[in-house]
Amino acid sequence: MLTLGNRGRGFESLSLRQINKMNLNFKTSLAKNYKSPSQIIRILTEDWVNNNAYCPNCGNITLSESRNNKPVSDFICPDCKEVYELKSKKDKFGKKIVNGAYSTMIERLLDNNNPNFFLLNYDSLNLKVLNLFVIPKHFFIPEIIEKRKALSQTARRAGWIGCNILLESIPNTGKIFFIRNCRAESKDRVLSEWKRTLFLKEEKVTSAKGWLLDIMKCIEKLDDKTFTLDNIYAFENILQKKHPDNKHIKDKIRQQLQILRDKGYIKFVRRGHYQVV
């Protein structure tokens, strides 16, 4: 049986075309002529996406591979033109995701031409998909991109500066699962969860979007569908540290809750009480 060692790393993405017919196994025969673990997983995951993926934005069951001389493998929806970058990992994704050049990532974020991310984790022994989730691009702001140290002068790419994506800074609603522990989510649910946060696309100013994401994270930390204004006020000190120039944190909290209410993310129950929709 073809297996991958600890070095296995490539691209990932996953999706389901028909839930009851989904095959999570990779087509291992495609990689029989490859030796490098990274090449093997790239070939297998790209093929899997080509044959199983669908667009979570519009539901199109076909995603086209589109390299266009790019250093990464992207997929594009031929209907809505949403682009998806794939990353794969043998183990579950942790707090950070290693990405490419810092300057390029920041430039793409500011120009709003960054891709959505498919993150896939796989079983390296049995060569099958374990988990796949997508992070919509409207959850990405410069604050979640961590600048790494420049490569040493002795390195082949001396001075090059990479970056990490701070996965822990993204609300759980921005991590939409297609496959969770080898179980496929329904396509209706995936599309519904995608649409739920599309209002973030309307926020053109990154600082405004950052505030909304912060409040969404605070709500999730409460781990309850219902919460009070005082519950969110409890995060005042944390939010103050993140936004030191803002001297009216409680006012800002109320403002963000009103926006989330108007966008249908939460609903007002009664004075000072809210519920996650």
Question: Can you describe this structure in just a few lines?
Answer:
The chain has 7 helices and 14 strands. The protein is of the alpha+beta class and 277 residues long. It has 2 domains: 181 residues, PvuII Endonuclease, Chain A; 71 residues, Winged helix-like DNA-binding domain superfamily/Winged helix DNA-binding domain (Arc Repressor Mutant, subunit A).
Distinctive features:
277 residues; alpha+beta; PvuII Endonuclease, Chain A; Arc Repressor Mutant, subunit A; eight-stranded mixed beta sheet; three-stranded antiparallel beta sheet; 7 helices; 28% helix; 23% strand
Per-chain topology:
Layout: E1 9-10, H1 37-52, E2 64-66, E3 74-76, E4 83-89, E5 96-101, H2 102-111, E6 116-123, E7 128-135, E8 145-147, E9 162-166, E10 176-180, E11 183-184, H3 187-196, H4 206-221, E12 226-228, H5 229-233, H6 236-242, H7 249-262, E13 266-270, E14 273-276
Parallel strand pairs: 4-6
Antiparallel strand pairs: 1-4, 2-3, 3-4, 5-9, 6-7, 7-10, 8-9, 10-11, 12-14, 13-14
Question: Could you say what the CATH architecture of the largest domain is?
Answer: 3-Layer(aba) Sandwich
What is the CATH top level name of the largest domain?
A: Alpha Beta
Number of strands: 14
Tally of distinct domains: 2
Structural class: alpha+beta
Tell me the distance between the termini.
Answer: 46 Å
Shape type: globular
Structural summary, described in words:
With about 280 residues, the chain is an alpha+beta fold. Helices cover about 30% and strands about 25% of the residues. Strands 1, 2, 3, 4, 6, 7, 10 and 11 form an eight-stranded mixed β-sheet that branches. It has a three-stranded antiparallel β-sheet with strand order 5-9-8. A three-stranded antiparallel β-sheet has the order 12-14-13. The longest helix has 16 residues, at about 35-50.
